[in-house]
Every structure is written in C-alpha cells, then in structure tokens.
Amino acid sequence: MKQLLQSAILISSILSTALLAKTAIIETNMGSITVDLNEKAAPKTVANFIQYANSGHYEGTVFHRVIPNFMIQGGGFNTAMQERDTRPPIINEASNGLKNEKYTIAMARTSDVNSATSQFFINVAYNDFLNQRDKTTAGYGYAVFGKVTSGFDVVDKIAKVYTKRSIVSEAQPIQNIVISKVTIRND
C-alpha cells in the first residue's frame, strides 16, 4: 500500500510539472523580454527552443536583423557576427493555428520549410503574410510558438535601433543588441 501511494504521488508530481506553462525570459543589454511558450500548439518548436536556452546557446548571441514595422531576429550569431553551431533542423509547425501577430515569437528559417534551428524572431507588426496559406514552399509559413507577455517596451526599443547593411544582414544593428541569457521557467 505504501508503494502504491508513493507511486501515485510521483505520477501526480510528474503530471503537474508537465502541465505547468513554460515561460522564457530573454535578457538583453536593452532590457528583458518575457515570452509565454505554447507547448500545446508547437511542442517540437518549444522543445527545440528550450534545449538551446538550457544549453547556453543563446548567451552572447545578438539580434542581428532588425526591421522596423516587421520583426527583430536573433539567436544565431555572436557579437563578432560569427554563426553559432546548431543542432539538426526541426519540422516546421506553422500549421499549428498560431498567427504571426504583433509580439509573437516564431522560428526563423531559410527557403527550406524545415530548416529552423536556433534563430527566432519577434513580430513587431501583424505579419499575416508569414502565416501558413498552404503546404507549398511559398505558402508554408513560419511557426509561431509563443507570445511576449512583458517587455513590450524592450521589443519596441530594439525595433527602432539604427541599422546598416552587412554580410550577415540587410538590417544589422549598428550597436550590438546582446542576449545575455535565456532562462526557462515553469509557471
């Protein structure tokens, strides 16, 4: 009977932990951004982001692409604009029903729909054209996996920085916007 009770407590503990919402705190030299991660809609994408965050991958990366009235992108390059090593790409979960609305976070990718690794972007406008329209290469979309819940002012401040054209980006901030840490919390 004692073992049965201990097993029930253990299972209850595991289930309650699994049901907790996950939150990411993205700390930058311009302030912190808090993001609620949507594990239910984008389980593979959220797991991928958490794995990069927990491994320390994002520490010392920058927002390397900033386009006002569009998005801010980071998570792949260090302050010297050298690309960080990544794990294999993940499956695109753009068909999850989440939309590229203002202050949502989504995975960046190349023209290959299943090429997302560590880079992400935060929409600073309603970018409906990034939503999945169909399963073709042109219409596949970008997978949203969460939304900003605080630090809107930080996102807006980053979106207004001066940029320049570079080898890495058509809109690289003139001064580095550094991600010092991404912390994952279970709320």
Supply Rg. 18 Å
CATH class: Mainly Beta
Structural class by sheet pairing and helices: alpha+beta
Give me the CATH fold name: Cyclophilin
How many helices? The count is 3
- How many β-strand runs? 10
Q: Poorly predicted ranges (pLDDT <50, ≥5 residues)? A: 10-18
State the separation between the terminal residues, measured CA to CA.
Answer: 32 Å
Major β-sheet strand ordering? 1-2-7-5-6-4-3-10
Give the name of the CATH superfamily: Cyclophilin-like
Query: What's the story with the biggest beta sheet?
Result: 8 strands, antiparallel, barrel
Overall 3D geometry?
globular
Return the CATH architecture.
Beta Barrel
Task: Indicate how many domains the architecture comprises.
Answer: 1
Into which percent range does the helicity of residues fall? 10-25%
As an assembly, this protein is single chain
Order of helices and strands: HEEHEEEEEHEEE
Mean pLDDT over the full residue set: 92
Protein name: Peptidyl-prolyl cis-trans isomerase
GO biological process, one term: protein folding
Pfam family, one: Pro_isomerase
Domain PPIase cyclophilin-type: 20-184
